Amino acid sequence: MIFKPFLIALGLLSAAQAIKPFTWNKQTFLLHGKPFQIIGGQMDPQRIPHELWTDRLAKARAMGLNTIFSYVYWDQLVPEEGAWETSGNNDIARYFKIAQKQGLNIVLRSGPYICGEHEWGGFPAWLSEVPGMVVRTSNKAYLEAAKFYIDHLGAELKDLMITNGGPILMAQVENEYGSYGDDHVYISSLRDMMREAYGIPLYTNDGGEESMLMGGQIAGALAETDGSPQTGFAARNEYVTDPSSLGPQLDGEYYVTWLDQWASNYTHETDVGNTAAIKQVTSDLEWILKNDSSFSIYMFHGGTNWGFQNGADWGGRAGAHNHEL
Ligand SMILES: *[C@@H]1O[C@H](CO)[C@@H](O)[C@H](O)[C@H]1NC(C)=O
Ligand SMILES: *[C@@H]1O[C@H](CO)[C@@H](O)[C@H](O)[C@H]1NC(C)=O
């Protein structure tokens, strides 16, 4: 261990501290001070047997991705109130360490609500039995439960944050919250909680429409969109004016295909053999790259919903594609 005052005297610390490990300017992300385009793909550790993590991450790197976007499932980490379960597929710190070894960065999507086509958007079932609970609002019982989860996750991943030499670049606050509500007291409480627990830059990710961006965007977090990059980027440029939410454009979920649904009337969703769909994907991704912007392919690898961890549609029977809970 070298004594800090000694380094400061040599001028070493002040020089190192001048360059933030990850930040952005108006146009571009900056990784260790250099322009950085996020070539990302989504892959959630808790949907993949941990024995296969190295193999899947190596394949992502081999495909040319430089960043993995990962949802984290609260219900698996906190299966009972007050519990903290990080063995096997829940050892997400290990997954992020393997990613770093493979040369991949991480974007952390820890909700607490994630949607993610996961049961109740990642909320633990026991939340529904807590008296006075109102999820996704500035409700006391809910915020206390969320804080337990976020604080424990922050402690678990502390050494893996970019600020401590780890691969985790930034974290998302909530998930497409503007599609659900506009309680900005709630979103800013989460932002503050995450800022304290994670200590890394934060962003929000909403659908590329005015009401969604206005509902989900919050000062001090970079506002990003998902879906069509052309309409999403244009909407962000048009509707978000707070300079503390402006910066490079990231399509946080570029859909290469759609999800499968359990019902006899559905067919398997795939682009295989669909030349028109593949052409659309390649031209969109080329457009983003030429635009000096960033993307995350949703999904790079989907994995498996174990047990009853799959999400379900709400707002009508089968066929309502718009509300996956
Ligand atoms: C499936 O299709 C049949 C025939 O069109 C229809 O009667 C039935 O309601 C559909 N089932 C669902 C779950 O949508
Ligand atoms: C990226 O696209 C946006 C929206 O169409 C446009 O305003 C901007 O000038 C483009 N930037 C570059 C570098 O091409």
From TrEMBL:
Transmembrane segments: none annotated. It comes from Penicillium frequentans. Residues 1-18 form the signal peptide. PROSITE patterns: GLYCOSYL_HYDROL_F35 (PS01182). Residues 28-313 form the Glycoside hydrolase 35 catalytic domain. GO terms for biological process: carbohydrate metabolic process. SUPFAM superfamilies: (Trans)glycosidases (SSF51445). Keywords: Glycosidase, Hydrolase, Signal. InterPro entries: GH, Gly_Hdrlase_35_cat, Glyco_hydro_35_CS, Glycoside_Hdrlase_35. Gene3D superfamilies: Glycosidases. It holds the Pfam family Glyco_hydro_35. The keyword Cell membrane does not apply. GO terms for molecular function: hydrolase activity, hydrolyzing O-glycosyl compounds. This is Glycoside hydrolase 35 catalytic domain-containing protein. The lineage of its organism: Eukaryota, Fungi, Dikarya, Ascomycota, Pezizomycotina. Belongs to the glycosyl hydrolase 35 family. It comes from the Eukaryota.
